[in-house]
Amino acid sequence: MKSVFRTFMMLALAAMPFIASAQKSSDPEGYVTYSLPSTTLVLDVEAVQENFYAGPYARYAEKYLGIKARQKDETVWQITQVSLTPVVEADLARRYSLALTAEDADLSFLKLTTAGLISLSDGGYGLPQNWRFPVAGEADFSDKGVSSNLRSEATTLYRNDRRESQFSKVSVQQNMVVEKTLEQKAAEAAQTIIRLREQRLQIVTGDTDATYSGEAMEAAVNELTRLENEYMSLFVGYSDFQTQKATFDVVPSADRESQMYVAFRISETAGPVPSDNLSGKPVVMEIVPQTVAVIEPEDPKAAKKAAKLQKVNYLIPAVCTVKIKDGSELLIQSRVPVYQLGVLASMPVTAILK
């Protein structure tokens, strides 16, 4: 058994240099290699999570305060900011090489990066396209007004009292101690809110026996407002907010017939998540490339001759209209150059060097 194990280890150690050399790859010596550019669309997304907790008296808010309140707990995510930034990278699947002679030693026309990306003269890498939009709000008049939403009516109750052969109505009054219902508690809280508003109005207008001025008035008004907000939360509930930021990359592909991509998703529990997380609602990116005119050679013979020359390949990017949609809502729209959706062109090396 030991001899078998020793033989196995010797074979494994002997094979390690071959494995290491197989994993390495190198370009031919004496050649200039380069890659064509590729555009990656980077999305920086900011979303706000709202954890809402309904008040125990929510269903009585309209009856006692004249307002509508949310009836149940819920968690809601809403996108508050999206920025689109085109980033140019090297397309490692589209690489070329140049065999230059000593006469062609001037390579000033090439700008090579450490990633092997080539550019000829300009470096149009695009600018960030930002769009900030507020969270849609609704009118809220829950803390306005000092009048009650109810009115009082006097009602007399009777019971039938039988005396001999006649019935007569006799008023009855009965007192007993019973537990207050949820609606009765809501009614008392609503009355407290009305009283707090009346006291605050009296202090502000001076319609009170006490005299308030300066810091004393401000402190009294602030305390009444704090108490009112505490009682109001029993009807309208309260929310906790949390902001989450995430970054997603979309690399357009010229091989796809439809330039529709799921940029990212919005999950009810996790917020912005990658496109492969199927638990979220998709946010779609639509790319509409502008048509690039293709030039046909005027002289077929000259075209055949030019095809034999050593040349540098480059891409003319397609200017694309990029739209980000959350369902039917358009979040952002911008025009962005996308290299891989453009046209492949070339020029002779000799023409550049001369």
Characterize the structure shown.
The protein is an alpha+beta fold and 354 residues long. It has helices spanning 2-23, 61-65, 182-205, 215-236, 300-307, 349-353, and strands at residues 31-53, 74-99, 111-112, 118-119, 129-132, 158-163, 166-171, 238-250, 260-267, 271-273, 281-289, 311-326, 329-348. A five-stranded antiparallel β-sheet has the order 10-9-11-12-13. A four-stranded antiparallel β-sheet has the order 5-2-1-8, with no helix packed on it. Strands 3-4 form a two-stranded antiparallel ribbon. A hairpin with a 5-residue loop joins strand 3 (111-112) and strand 4 (118-119).
Q: In terms of per-residue confidence, which ranges show pLDDT below 50 for 5 or more consecutive residues? A: 1-23, 119-139
Q: What is the number of strand segments?
A: 13
Structural class from helices and strands?
A: alpha+beta
How much strand? 35-45%
Strand order of the largest sheet: 10-9-11-12-13
Biggest beta sheet attributes = 5 strands, antiparallel
Q: Distance between the terminal alpha carbons, to the nearest Å?
A: 72 Å
**Radius of gyration, whole Å:** 38 Å
Overall shape: it is elongated
Q: What would the average pLDDT be, to the nearest integer?
A: 76
Report the total helices. 6
Approximate helicity band: 10-25%
User: What is the ordering of alpha helices and beta strands?
Assistant: HEHEEEEEEHHEEEEHEEH
